[in-house]
Amino acid sequence: MWRAVIHCVPGGGDCHRGIRVRAWGAGKTSQKLEVDLLSITGPSRWEACATDDSYPTAVDVRAVISYALENGWQPERRGGTFVLSEREHGARFSLPGFLLADPVRTAESADPTAQVTRAYEAQQRG
To answer: What is the pTM of this model?
Structure first.
């Protein structure tokens, strides 16, 4: 079972669409998988939060779950949360149209606007 919730992530130059994905392998009492995705959208005249319509598909969620299973998520375990964070998994995990984001933005976190801009420009080049 999985669920995805849209939220806005403020950045230095814009607001960006974030999607928190949660999955359970053995019901709500099992170890939860949690990942925050940041949409890679191109420039817009309005805030990206207002115009971005990105949302992970079932194929995207399957890719997240497969990666998590290969990297330590134990869905049969009771309780707890397995988090796919940018800090630990961002360099190894990729999902077309999205970046991994850390769940809680702190002063040390990278600016989401800079991250999205770099990823969008790389996507356009490649």
So the answer is: 0.80
pLDDT-derived band at 117 (thresholds 50, 70, 90) equals confident
Q: Report the alpha-carbon distance of residue 60 to residue 68 in Å, rounded.
A: 12
DSSP H helices, 5-111, are: 48-51, 58-70, 86-89
Are 72 and 82 in contact by the 8 Å Cβ rule? The answer is: yes
Q: How many CB atoms lie within 10 A of CB 116?
A: 26
In 1-126, alpha helices (H)? 48-51, 58-70, 86-89, 112-125
Identify whether the C-beta of residue 93 lies closer than 8 Å to the C-beta of residue 44. Answer: no
Average pLDDT over residues 107-124: 73
